[in-house]
Amino acid sequence: MALFKNLSLTIAQIALLTALAFGSDRAAQWLHLPVPGSIIGAIILFALLKSGTIRLRWIERGANWLLAQMLLFFIPPCVGIIQYEDIVRTNGVTLLAAVMIGTIVVMAIIALPSAVIQAGKGRRRLRRHDEVSHS
Predict the structure, then answer these.
(1) What is the DSSP string of 81-131?
(2) Where are the domains of the chain?
(3) pTM score, two decimals?
(4) What percent of the chain has pLDDT over 70?
(5) Phi, psi of 89 (to 5 degrees)
């Protein structure tokens, strides 16, 4: 029964994160924003977590599962690029530079909220430890 509950909770959290991703992507398209929907979604999720509207435990299992499966999300594009060998030969360096710069920018944008969330978790643990010690 616990396995079913954990699985259901993880699926619900993944559904919530997926809905946020699709919604932010659609909003970026509808508003004709020059920023990808994934970045807007990350900013919205950070704001919701920081404001307390969404608690980390509400999405943590699903987010951890998605992170663990991340390699699977990169395999199809890598396999698909084989079909465009001529484009890779003529523009490979430009494509590689764009991918590297894009990756660095996304990592930098995601690193700050992640660091803030981790610091908050550490402070909460420390407060709980202090409360238990003083009891």
Answers:
(1) GGGGHHHHHHHHHHHHHHHHHHHHHHHHHHHHHHHHHHHHHHHHHHHHHHH
(2) 1-68, 75-135
(3) 0.55
(4) 88
(5) -65, -40
